[in-house]
Design brief:
By secondary structure, the protein is of the alpha/beta class. 47% of the residues lie in helices and 13% in strands. It has a domain of 131 residues: Dna Topoisomerase Vi A Subunit, Chain: A, domain 2 (3-Layer(aba) Sandwich). It binds zinc ion.
Length: 206
Amino acid sequence: MNPIQKLTDYFAEFPGIGPRQARRFVYYLLTRNQNHIDEIAKLMGTLKSQVRICTSCYRFFQSENRDATLCDICSSRNRDNALLVIVSRDVDLENIERAHVHSGKYFVLGGGVPILEKEPEKRIRSNELLRTVQTRAEKGELKEIILALNATPEGENTAEYVESLLKPITSSSNIKVSHLGRGISTGTELEYSDADTIKNALNNRN
Ligand SMILES: [Zn+2]
């Protein structure tokens, strides 16, 4: 197979990228000089070894310290342990951080639960979530869990699943579970919401 087609096929596997866009990426790369392409290839080559996953919130993070297991948010003393925001993906967390409206902690599910999914526990980090919430509940520090999921059918389904999954812990430990309020309109993905919208949705959570 020729390299143009091969690379097109790889790019077409990226989320949200179709074959036509994938091919445009390849032709774009062909217009750049060799150094630029080498730099991209090098970065891709080191991505997995230099980026780790946080053992508390499960977001990807980069650290100079090879032994670091917690990201900067989880290891910060200035973050409120009483509040835990649950998001689907890293991009959602980053978007909320950019809005500067949440001073607590996070948990990244690593995906969503599609409607009618027979094995929802396999689509997100169910066991890890249970462990994190259980540990926090035992310490008596967790007061509220905010489900910051997309206002899409899959997002709502995910919220329902997560809520029922955590129910035994949240009921027995008296932890409030809230959802993003109005502001994020139906059909909207958190990733594409601006800072003001996120701020309103968090302030009006219910
Ligand atoms: Zn973390």
